[in-house]
Amino acid sequence: MAVEIAGLVAATSPRPVDDLRSLRASCRAMRAACGDRAVGRRVALEREAAAMLWSDAERYLAVVGSLSATGNPEACFLAGVALVFAHRRARPRGAELLGQAAAAGHKVAAYVLALVLYKAGDASGAATRHIRQVEGEAAEAAGGGVGVGGGCSKNTTTWWSNEECVRCRAHAVEAVRQATWKMAELEAPVPAVVAPPPVDDGSHGCTVSGCGSREAWCDWCVFCSEDCRIRYECAMFFSQLPLTVVDFVT
Fold first, then answer.
1. Is residue 32 part of a domain?
2. Average pLDDT rounded to a whole number, residues 146-173
3. Is residue 239 part of a domain?
4. Closest by Cα among 158, 127, 133 to 143
């Protein structure tokens, strides 16, 4: 019962870290309950970011590290981003943490992991599977597309949307900038460069008219294949990061 109470505080409080600290001080039973891994996994860490990140960065980073050890999805995502984009030797562990967050349903973690794997030359199909997770598509490729009429090739009328990717991209870019601000001079705002649809390198043979075209009145596009979609997202995401970070990753 004590663990359940502490878990509700962690999940619903506007300041979960501070409230859990107060709860821990109330009695011995609550102290033990608040230290349970199940409680740590439920902490809504994103609610603490605005208040703690700039006012008490060291404490915030300590909280992220502690909660990532419990499997908290947001903490695993933040720790994974830091390891992948700011600590070259720790990238495998960073990818592992991103995968842990993605497995818990964290869509932004799945988005970042997909692009990192794709950029590294993923041959297992994991990058594509994570992008499908972001878009809420079925695991099978045949069930994931969006029929928009007119067809996208000689043999199919399936198009692929990046609607959720657009939302996740904004959060991902901000997370990387916060994790790597010491690597680049960010005093002046860095403009978000709008990349054109990826230029085909000849290996995919995409000659479909309208692939990468923006939907009317929307920020998202449609693509003739999953590969075109993930190449486009890779171009968009890395174009919006500071050059020092992009050079470091590449």
1. no
2. 71
3. yes
4. 158
Look at residue 119 and tell me if it is in a domain: yes
For the CA atoms of 137, 139, 142, 148, the dihedral, rounded to the nearest 10 degrees, stands at 0
For the chain, the C-alpha Rg in angstroms (whole number) is 20
Q: How many domains does the chain have?
A: 1
Question: Could you tell me the pTM of the whole model?
Answer: 0.79
| pLDDT tens column, 165-188 | 999 999 999 999 888 876 544 333
pLDDT tens-digit readout, 1-57: 888 887 787 787 777 778 888 888 888 888 888 888 888 788 887 777 666 666 667
SS (H, E, C) the chain: CHHHHHHHHHHHCCCHHHHHHHHHCCCHHHHHHHCCHHHHHHCCCHHHHHHHCCCCHHHHHHHHHHHHCCCCHHHHHHHHHHHHHHCHHHHHHHHHHHHHHHHCCCHHHHHHHHHHHHHCCCCCCHHHHHHHHHHCCCCCHHHCCEECCCCCCCCCCEEEECHHHHHHHHHHHHHHHHHCHHHCCCCCCCCCCCCCCCCCCCCCCCCCCCCCEECCCCCCEEECCHHHHHHHHHHHHHHCCCHHHHHHHC
* Residue 81, pLDDT above cutoff 50: yes
